[in-house]
Write a structure and sequence with these properties.
Distance between the termini: 59 Å
Shape: elongated
Number of helices: 3
Number of strands: 3
Strand order of the largest sheet: 1-3-2
Strand content: 5-15%
Largest sheet: 3 strands, antiparallel
Length: 69
């Protein structure tokens, strides 16, 4: 089954931002997009990959042995 194409407003809702942020990602060529005539669409899988690539894992806590507070 082919990927769903999302418009800028749908992407903004998924990301929890205004529509300006996905438009900036498109303008700066930081995310892959599809032109359908004059409309711009983003594949759902591309958005999922973008989210995964920009997810920051928590740092592991360093434990110091032998250090008194």
């Amino acid at each position: 089954m082919p990927d769903h194409l999302l418009d800028v407003d749908q992407v903004a809702v998924i990301l929890g931002t205004t529509s300006r942020f996905p438009r900036r990602l498109i303008e700066e060529r930081r995310i892959e997009y599809v032109k359908v005539g004059r409309h711009v669409r983003i594949r759902a899988s591309v958005l999922a990959d973008f989210i995964a690539a920009n997810t920051v894992s928590p740092a592991r806590r360093r434990v110091r042995l032998g250090v008194a507070a």
